[in-house]
């Protein structure tokens, strides 16, 4: 957790940088090995305040007074503290603006000067070394064992949950951009480039684990260099925030810091190794433990440690489960099964394909983690695979629900040594109920996307019929549902489609579209006391107009490679309000037909 802190700060800040080990079920045959990434379901607590700093002004004395006032008068959010720390450590004199309003907002910045003189850092030592932060690792380190070996070299770690590893500093200047494996056992994985820096408790009593990704090697790095590159870091930063504002349980991104240090990557695993820019993402989650965290303990026979870790997870994150309940592990498994079914149904409702659904990438809290080669569908295709490394197409979007059940079965196998025969039988029955739970939630979500109220015996058929038409004509997933909610029923009834509804124009070419429309209009008539305006309002609230399409992320990445972060900031702004029509987004073409070159974009596990 935090590294070389001053001795006088130890009482308040007992931190060491920790990396977490876990196992993973991954694919067979020539599987590429890559470092882990890692989750948060609801937003952290925050204080309503607004602080604007003028741009391009040397602010040393003025900032000192303001920061002193803030720290003495305000109950700050972790986000503002994170930004202040990074600001001083990175050496930023020049700022654009800082906004911490009543709803969680990101701060958009860049650094023009990155190396503070040492004297200035010494004067601000309380900020630069975390001593002003109320971070703690006491609950984790007092309960869970830490590897006795503190040397940072790659090894098999047993009998421990955490290993001590200090981040590796970048050699070049750094740039603060924004604030804000496939089915078979792969053995020990772990945080090969992630460092847990502490647990923050906000004013509501919620705890958030802060983690750096791309911050250097750890004992779990295998052959990796412990670094992350700009393109994958921008994708994780934007992707996790986009999912949060879509209402999907997810990890959050707090900051993105870039460097001029060289990082070498074989992006497509074809032998073409190229130099890329390094980056570090600071991310937060309620917990970073995954199914693989339990799986590896069972496989290595460390059952006492398995029980200790599981008890901690239940006690910290499942308060409705009594620790004195003899069926607590069964209750835990039931919750994870139900919430995983819900999560994957939510993914499907926005056309999201995770890309790497290994057990080490499935959170015990059922939140979306590890934003690697993910993708939002453009044209609807149940076989959509965003990850070109997935040559067996195991994790195609239409198979995600099945993979979820596979991973839950691995979780059950990990829990089995702690269950008695009766509990094992009940747990198997719970797992068998997963498909029904998933289908029920999937149907609920897609009924809402179509503006349907109540229930009808043919609702499932109506949804499946539409998806088949979309598949046949390769209709745009996001905009087909969005524009169905924006069109009047009169236009739909006459199949008189205004030109601006380009996605409906595409699907209307199908010879069976008029038959589907007739069924749909008949079903809408059963919406008791429903009005046209109410239907449009409901559908607009669940069908986003903007998602992080791969071409949008790629455009921002290409500009960022040239130190132009304008589109990263623009996307962050737009994706915070995905359901609202925004002039800047319309001007940028984010709701228009994807450009032809979008089909050529490839993403892989290389990051």
Automatic annotation (TrEMBL):
The chain crosses the membrane at residues 66-88. Its cofactor is Mg(2+). InterPro entries: SelO. Pfam families: SelO (PF02696). GO terms for molecular function: ATP binding; metal ion binding; nucleotidyltransferase activity. NCBIfam families: PRK00029.1 (NF000658). Belongs to the SELO family. This is Selenoprotein O. It comes from Eublepharis macularius.
